[in-house]
Amino acid sequence: MTHRTAMGAWLAGIAAAVLLTASLMGRRMAEPPRGTSTPHANRLIHERSPYLLQHAHNPVDWYPWGDDAFAKARAEQKPIFLSIGYSTCHWCHVMERESFEDARVADVLNRSFVSIKVDREEHPDVDHLYLTAVSALTGQGGWPLTVFLTPQLQPFFGGTYFPPERRGQLPGLLEVLPAVADAWERQREQVLGSAQQLTEAVRQMTAQQATPGEPSEATLHAAFNAAAGSFDPAHGGFGDAPKFPRSHELSFLLHYWARTHTGQALDIVTSTLDHLVRGGIHDQIGGGFHRYSTDAAWLVPHFEKMLYDQALLARTLLEAHQITGRADFADAARGIFDYVLRDLTDASGGFHSAEDADSEGVEGKFYLWTPAQLQEALGPEDAELAARFYGVTPEGHVEHKASILHIEQPLEDFAKLKALDPGTLRTRLAAIRARLLAARSTRVRPHRDDKILTSWNGLMIGAFAYGAAVLDEPRYLTAATRAADFVRATLVRDGLPLRRYRDGEARYAGTLEDYAFLASGLLDLYEAGFRSQDLAAARGLTEQMIAQCWDDAAGGFFACGDEEASQVVRTKDAADGATPSGNSMAALTLLRLGRLTADRRWDDYGRKALGAFGGAVDRRPLAFAQMLIGWDFALGPTRELVIAGGPSLPDTQALVRASRRRFLPRTARLLHPPGPEGEAIQALAPFVRAQGPVQGRPAAYLCENFQCRLPVTDVAALTRLLGAPEAGSSAP
Fold it and tell me: In this predicted model, what pLDDT tens digit does every residue of 249-277 receive, in sequence order?
């Protein structure tokens, strides 16, 4: 199909869907009879998902995603009402309270539809498919996601949040549901035709991402220019409110700086991190970062905390710390790790998924402070200092005159203004934060989603491993190792990852991001702790990722996961969202594995994965920031650093530490120890066999373009050998 024909089909699908939308919205229906709530639980009571369990006592006759629901819809020839969300989603809670607990809404759903509730974090492939459909239909998407499907699972109408009754231009469910049911009964052929065309539109949108092209340095420059053009010089970050941290874009700019030494790229990142670290989006006393800021200045956040945000921001902060040496970036990363260890770590060692924004029915209440609350927790003198430093005022920033802790001035500037010694102030503020944290711990906590997701755990394993290496902190390595061992033992079966673990149950086929994120985290863990089993596990997962998800015809990876969803449209996504795309992480993992093992097969797959999306990346480079990091790696030069020596020897440890002080994103690190562990590494990376200690002393070998420099045995020589941060080209 030509590009023009494909676009024509896409537009035809949208036009048909819009015509149906107009028909539905233009019809006023009589109010349905009031139903009565069912006193017993529905089918969701047997699920493990916290989100599904939140709806287990709705009067709606919910089904979980699966064969039982599909069979009922096909047997009774009823349309499917699909509702997708997650347990820490604020507007999902609102829609439940307003609509799914309303007996009138339930009555219409139970009579005319088969209702399916999906946790998007358990089924990201299903979510991506129908989010794409709603985005094609309405021009936007989000959660809660509301989609109407045929019994064959093809979408024909949808949106996001619907109130129970019309509010201005926003139609209500009590209007939409009878209209859809009526259209299904009276205009079924038109509905089925619209469903077919909308499905084809989704297929074309997927195909447009998978347009081939060769990675080039010019695309990296174009992405930098796009970032510079959307940068907010007043507050940092990109664009206007609402503002997301966009960690992978910041990390791309750091990789770009390492290649070109473009000062503006580094300035954009450090300015953004300055504002993030001092802003209300940063939990100033408990560590970690909230989901996004509702304003341009990063002051008023949406207060939910997601595990993946902690992992991605920790890495970006650590990379910036390596480049700049700034202690505040390292401290913010430590705060993230402390938060995750304290509040999101399961007894098993795995990491929980998220914390809600709400507590006691009020968004952010857990995190807000008034002057009186400071007084109660700290006493008058420290309360005054805390109020001034963290911006707590009688007027506050949100309802009920409560304030969001933030830092308007850097500590050194505040100390100078108040004629205080910076060191003394820093110590006093640390004690204040500890007391406020203790006081806050007595409040009603937000809901915690305690399911353990393979993909997000892979990101956090990688972040803890990177933190252990950069900050020389053994407890971070312990945390990463415990989580990796738990995930491998519990969520990987016969070499294949499962998606989710909760309450003793591991379930659902893994998606591409489960393969790619976990394999990437294991590579980070190998480079931090040098356990050969982690490198072997990463290789095994990557083998299965290719076997299960690789597109032999066009290159790149399909989403994998749910078979029913893939029968509608087999999606293949490369653009980043809140997390990097599975294809982006898969490509970089393949390239890294190729460097660590010197196996060209991995490198070839990685380059093919990048090339499968090259045309789309060229059109909108900044939408593919994580893939650009892979392109930077593929364009090289890349290097392998092998340190040969016993891991417990002080000289070996000194060489390892020296290699970690610099930001070297295109350098792969291996340890070649003596004994059985050394033999295991030789089996995985045969090229290290000839690289051993020199005259009994641990030695470092730096290799590039299949050639190795003469080994060095002391830190000063290794530092000279590593040289400046990798610069492979010049900026335009």
Answer: 999 999 999 999 999 999 999 999 999 99
